[in-house]
Design goal:
With 413 residues, the chain is of the alpha+beta class. The protein contains twelve helices and 14 strands. The longest helix is centred in the middle third of the chain and has 35 residues, at 239-273.
């Protein structure tokens, strides 16, 4: 399977200027391709082919006085920008036809130099390399210093250089992992677990373990508020406003990085300790439209579940989801009696049939495990389906299917 390994880059001033030039050239070629498509559509003509776009927008454009500066960057960067435009239109049309899963893809738009994220991609034929000193040598940019946090498990097939909204540079390598090597990193275990995600506790496991929610955004609200107030007082278009905007972006980047690190550490721990993991298919987007929206976004359930899913596939674990309408908080995990819905403030309850006192979240996690077939059911029979590895079509995060009606159900759990 393909994974991305990202490392921080520290370009020198001259290299930063060369990267800015490459970002700008890639953006211009992308916009030219989108403009040619839109013009063909307005004139009711067939869309131009990729070969024609490459010839006109790159080869001939370099020879013209208006676009001669395109020759100052690697041609691979420009070709990959055209491929990005083709992919954007392909996703857009597939979304219109209903062939593409997930949220609807919008029509490709023009890129702006003021976009918060800039990126260029170098494939293997660009002849980029990693020097013996550990620097990333990029064509027409030079050897850029890299902060290596770990070794690459295999030779990368491509590298993408990204500049984020906080002004930081990253090198993102695409790696093809070896399934046999990954299998040896996680030994087989007989443990299984059900997980109930929440807000007071980020996750409650079926064995009774409770993992507190770090609430990174809530803890940083005072700092973010002050930075945003300083930004609002600056005159638009001034250099001081640009500096203030950078401070706001860096403050938000710190929150996002801390949350991502927490998700990675917890998901890896759960995958290492358990052979099978069961979770509830939450309607994250629906819950994010309720009064709990800020807390739901702060928890980042969707990103955490995506990490569990791809790590389970990578290391040969079983990842199972149960229906979001399963009454996990209404059923006694001991005798199976359904005791009806309960308000959110009820954290403990006693089963009217068997008299067992339940912790609401631990009981829900146990029912998640039982509903997935990883535990003994209420009637005493062990129901366990054939293990199915989690499917993950490409690297990156995937959205969770959403329906707004699930938000109403969650408010009564």
């Amino acid at each position: 399977m393909q994974l991305r390994y990202a490392f921080r880059l520290y370009p020198e001033p001259g290299q930063a200027s060369a990267l800015a030039r490459a970002f700008g050239c890639a953006r211009v070629v992308y916009n030219d391709a989108v403009r040619a498509r839109e013009q063909a559509h307005a004139d009711q003509l067939p869309y131009p082919s990729a070969a024609w776009l490459s010839k006109e927008m790159i080869t001939r454009a370099k020879q013209s006085p208006e676009r001669s500066w395109l020759a100052k960057v690697s041609s691979v960067v420009l070709q990959q920008s055209l491929r990005d435009a083709e992919t954007a239109y392909r996703n857009f049309f597939a979304s219109l036809k209903g062939d593409r899963k997930g949220p609807k893809a919008d029509k490709p738009r023009m890129k702006s130099r003021k976009d918060t994220r800039q990126a260029i991609r170098f494939t293997a034929n660009a002849r980029w390399s990693i020097t013996p000193g550990g620097k990333l040598n990029l064509p027409k940019i030079g050897a850029v210093k890299v902060a290596w946090s770990r070794r690459l498990p295999a030779t990368p097939s491509s590298v993408t250089v990204v500049k984020d909204s906080a002004g930081r540079y990253f090198a993102s390598f695409v790696i093809d992992t070896a399934p046999a090597t990954d299998a040896t990193r996680m030994p087989v275990t007989d443990r299984t677990v059900g997980i109930d995600l929440g807000l007071t506790h980020f996750a409650v496991l079926s064995d009774g373990t409770k993992i507190d929610s770090p609430r990174f955004l809530r803890r940083a609200e005072k700092k973010l508020k002050k930075a945003q107030q300083d930004l609002s007082r600056k005159r638009k278009g001034s250099k001081n406003r640009a500096k203030a905007r950078l401070k706001v972006a860096r403050a938000h980047a710190q929150v996002a990085d801390a949350r991502r690190e927490f998700h990675h550490q917890l998901s890896t721990k759960l995958i290492r300790e358990n052979q099978a993991i069961a979770v509830e298919d939450l309607a994250v987007n629906g819950l994010a439209r309720t009064r709990l929206a800020k807390s739901v976004h702060d928890a980042g359930w969707g990103a955490f579940l995506a990490m569990l899913e791809y790590k389970a596939r990578r290391y040969g674990r079983t990842f199972l989801t149960i229906g979001r309408f399963e009454p996990t908080s209404q059923v006694c995990s001991t005798c199976g009696t359904k005791d009806g819905p309960k308000p959110l403030h009820v954290r403990e309850w006693t089963c009217t049939a068997c008299g067992t006192v339940h912790d609401r979240d631990v009981n829900a996690a146990t029912n998640v495990k039982t509903a997935a077939g990883l535990a003994v059911s209420a009637c005493g029979a062990r129901v366990r389906p054939e293990p199915v590895l989690a499917q993950r079509e490409e690297t990156g995060s995937h959205g969770i299917p959403t329906e707004y009606r699930a938000a109403k159900r969650h408010s009564t759990r």
